[in-house]
Every structure is written in structure tokens, then in C-alpha cells.
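Okay, can you check this protein?
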Amino acid sequence: MKREIIKTRDGSTTIHLVDWNESYHSKNGAIQEAYHVFIKNGLSLIEEKSVSVLEIGFGTGLNAFITFLEAKKNNLNIDYTGIEAYPVAEEEAFAMNYLEELKSNSFEAEFKKMHQCNWEEKINFNTNFSLTKRKQFFQDIQDKNSFNLIYFDAFGYQVQPELWSTEIFKSMYESLKDSGILVTYAARGVIKRSMEEVGFKVKKVPGPPGKREMMIGFKNI
């Protein structure tokens, strides 16, 4: 599948899949979207200082990197697990301009380490952040009662509807600890119904630039 690096409206880059007309992040702003969806409407809702995060779609590492920065900024202890069936090549990841756009060039070594570290192995970055990358199909996730927060960042329903099925959300629900949260950029009614079917209490909130709504799913509230 043809891939190209494009610049989004906030100046940050993403990978565009030409055949699908689908991108790893919003064309309206990769960094803006990541902060709005996963930090403002995800991480910031967790009251604990020690947070276990599961990311569905590790991709370019943007969500992991901004979570690392938030851990440093707010003195959080983050145990981060990123799932990816088809890892992004290092040269593609390093072509992203996130360090410059986030004014975080001092953490270049950490960003590179996220992509160069071994899969299936927990890596400690500092006292605030650890990362485990798992090369795995989303359908094969079998964690139970393990995470406070899920970043659900799969490719869109229009290109991979099977990743947004009731079966997938059932495994997500089971992966969360009690009072856990799943956050996603998606807002389709069919996705909301699948989430509610497995037990999530779903709340629609304003989306990032260019998107009217997004969803947060709460477990056992």
C-alpha cells in the first residue's frame, strides 16, 4: 500500500495511506487531535498518579510520546502498553516532526528509543514512564482488569470496520480495571451501540478541530 508523509493543518506531520485515503492522524492537526482526544479527554480524567495505559494502534508513537511528556510535566507514573500489528518503520517514525513541533528536542533520545526498543519487553525510560510494545492483532488481546485507560486509536470504521466490532469492545471492557475509561476520536452511532452493548456508559463530547464529536466510554460507573 502506498504511503506518504504529509503535513497536517497544525504543522505536524502524519502518514497518509493513499489507497485507503486514510491517515494515522487527523489532517486537521495531528498533535492537536492527540492532545484533545487522549490527554484532555482521557489522561486528565484519571485521578490516580499511577496510571496504566493501553494504546490500540501504537503507530508513529505520537500518543506515547505526548503521554511521556505529560508524565514528566505532572509527575505521573505511567505504565504504557502499545499494541501494533504492523509497526511503522523507524525511518518513517523519525521523519515525523513531533520533536520540533512539541519543542521537545531535548527528548530526541527517548522518542527514538520508543521505536528502537525491543517488542514484547517492558522498557523503563525514567522513574515516570515505562513502555511495553506488543506486536499483536487487536482481536487477540486477552488482558483482564489490567488498565486504567485505553486510547482506542485504530484506523477509521470506514476502512476497517472489523476493528470497531462488539467483540473488540468486549475485550476492551474486560481489559479495563473497574472505573476505567476508554477514549476514542470516533463518534459513529454504530460504534456507540457496540460500546454500550458490552457495558460501557458512553458520553459524547466535542471533538478535536475538524470533528464535531468524539466518545468516552466509562466502565462500572
